[in-house]
Amino acid sequence: MKKQVIILAGQSNMSGRGGVYWYHGRYHWDSVVPDECTPSPSILRLSVDLNWEEARDPLHIDIESKSKTCGVGPGMSFANRLLKEIGCTSPNIGLVPCAVGGTAIKEWKKGSKLYNQMVQRAKAAAEIGDGGEIKAVLWYQGESDTDSDNASEVYGDNLKKFIEDVRSDLGLPYLPFIQVALASGSKRNVEKLRNAQLGLKLPNLVCVDAMGLPLNSDQLHLTTQAQVKLGTMLAEAYITQFLGQSNSTIWFNHQLITSQKAADFLCEIYQDGSLCGVNEIYFAGATDKGNKYVNNYLLGLYQSIRGVILLVVVSILLLYIVYSYCC
Prior knowledge:
Distance between the termini: 73 Å
Order of helices and strands: EHEEEEHEHEHHEHEHEEEEEH
CATH class of the largest domain: Alpha Beta
Strand content: 15-25%
């Protein structure tokens, strides 16, 4: 069975500082691993030298420089929650750590060292061993950009370009991105940047809000339990909105769109997430989900005759104009 490959990218709150503390002039990790982060033979990580190995915290220990101390991040609780959902016993989830603490969005632009390394590692994860399918990117970054007024102003545009470039270079135009809205940062700009994160509209982009999760004493990094909670939140978002979808299914502005043609209907589109390849599409208003449905046959019928309908309507309008002019 091919691994479900999940890319972990961003800065220190993604690489993990849960349980990290300052003592005698340096940072240490307390080595406490919560039950939700327990290692499993079914959860693997891609090491810095591109080998699969059993995943365990700290996931980014060999990705960041030795001058940085890694602790618990959201990756393991995410993977364990996902593993519980899919119920597989063979190696099935492949985590690809790529996050580096203290990095701004400009350091992740296409062509940069971090960007190239992430794309290279993602492609390798899909090829080595028994192979894998790149299923999603978990992205938690932005604290560094709150230090700059200008960086905060253009953050939304830079993030949009980053997502589009990653999808293009991986050949996955609708690759799910689950980003985290900041829980901390410079008070001067944190809300400005959060608004950019929460307001960004792209297909298959979901935002999980970390605001309110407990922080370490530095008031910047999430505590161990906060990281566990965040990982579970990310997993729930992935399970709810992406797990079991076909390649043609996309989310846009929190609406499920089974095809671009289906988007022509002026309504929200939902699909029963408990079934794979289900042939029924549910159309409903935002406050009346599941009120009506139409199956794929009716959808196809609509698509096949709408050109004829349009031609008839245009012809009637033209005849009316000619009649009005002449008479």
